[in-house]
Amino acid sequence: MKINSIVAFLDSWAAPSLAESYDNVGLLVGNPDQEVTSALLSLDVTEEVVAEAVRRGSNLIIAHHPIIFKGLKRITTASWVERTVLSAIENKIAIYAIHTNLDNLLGGVNSEMARRLNLQNTQILRPIPFNLEKWVTYVPNEYIEQLKEALFQAGAGSIGKYSECSFEMEGKGSYKPLDGSSPFKGEVHVRSEEREVRLEVIGRKQNSKAIYKALIDNHPYEEVAYEQIELRNLDQGNGAGLIGELEEEISFDDFFELLKKTFGLKVLRHSKILNRKVKRVALCGGSGSFLLEDAKRSDVQAFITSDIKYHDFFEAEGRLVLCDIGHYESEQFTSELIAAELKRNFGNFAVLLTEVSTNPIFYTPWPKN
Ligand SMILES: [Zn+2]
Fold first, then answer.
1. Distance from the CA of 200 to the center of ligand 1, in angstroms?
2. Where are the domains of the chain?
3. Nearest 5°: CA angle at 248, between 243 and 250?
4. What's the pLDDT tens digit per position in 38-74?
5. Cα–ligand 1 centroid distance for 350 (angstroms)
6. For 191-240, how does the pLDDT look when each residue is reduced to its tens digit (9 = 90+)?
């Protein structure tokens, strides 16, 4: 199997189009036509991780954080980023980044955090706007099932917890074939009228190309009449952060204990504790301060994220408890999530988890013990 097969699969799972505009995801280093030996999964790519890949005979590193983020003007040995990239190139090791596209996916980084906390009734905290499209086409009755099936296969027809959603309405269509046409039915220069079905399905933008291809390939007409309409509906399947409910209402003491146990915390920074219990929580793996206002509007008692600044803690305003569990800690299960997805799809393909802790932050208890 070639590296390209893994890339294609990961791109279809967490579409690069879901990534934030500032991000840099996908295959960053390497030859996609190279045969893949095994994949090494890590939150970050460091020189140590590349050395580990060499040692364990793995020629593909899949990481959450992109090693090339703002661009590189040279690849020398001047900085740790350049040395890491150079070492990967010298050792023919490819690097793939699956970053904010995996953050913005239901079933991604945040869903994994929620799963570990056993949160119920989870939903996206800030759904992506303008990510949905409505596709409308007009098709003869005898082709409707084949076309519907192809559209569903291409990812259309998914609404929340439902798939294969569509709407049909029968009517009459007309057309007059012009010079050079070869109509499915009717004669050139004669207006034809046919019974047709108006078929409507909803699709996500990341599936637009596949949906268009399914439509054109499975529609019998030479010229397919269709409409692709951008919707204002929020996409409940893609977006930043997550909200969910604990199995039962618990005290903040017990909640902090749950965080400590689930994420193996050595330290927890938080805003002032509320005089009530915790049931609904919001969370966002990595730096989630940008979602604070969304969390405050969501009637949650706690917001779990990381990289919270001093001034942000004031903004909790007694409406929720801001919990900073650490960036690495919040995203530590991401490699296992990707590994599980690869194993589900590729069966016996060797997927390795890094043995290197790439967390650049260390905690020193005081007084030292
Ligand atoms: Zn991160």
1. 38
2. 3-99+333-353, 109-127+238-331, 130-233
3. 95
4. 999 999 999 999 999 999 999 999 999 999 999 999 9
5. 25
6. 999 999 999 999 999 899 999 999 999 999 999 999 999 999 988 889 99
Amino acid at 255: F
What's the fold here for domain 109-127+238-331?
3.40.1390
Pairing of strands 321-324, 269-270: antiparallel
What separation in Å is there between the alpha carbon of 32 and the centre of ligand 1?
25
Q: 3-class SS at 318?
A: coil
367 Cα–ligand 1 center, Å:
30
Listed residues: CB within 5 A of ion ligand 1 = 286, 331
**C-alpha 243 – ligand 1 centre gap (Å):** 19
113 CA distance to ligand 1 centroid (A)?
Answer: 13
H helices present in 180-265, as ranges: 208-218, 252-263
Helix (H) or strand (E) holding 47: helix 47-55
Judge whether 3-99+333-353 and 109-127+238-331 match in fold.
Answer: yes
For the chain, the distance separating the N- and C-terminal CA atoms, rounded to the nearest angstrom, is 51
Q: 284 alpha carbon to ligand 1 midpoint, in Å?
A: 10
State in Å: Cα 327 to ligand 1 middle.
6
**Residue 175: CB partners within 8 Å, gap ≥ 6?**
183, 186, 191, 192, 194
332 DSSP 8-state letter: T
Q: How many angstroms is it from 163 CA to the middle of ligand 1?
A: 31
Question: Tokens 């939150």 map to which residue?
Answer: 43
pLDDT in tens, 271-305: 999 999 999 999 999 999 999 999 999 999 999 99
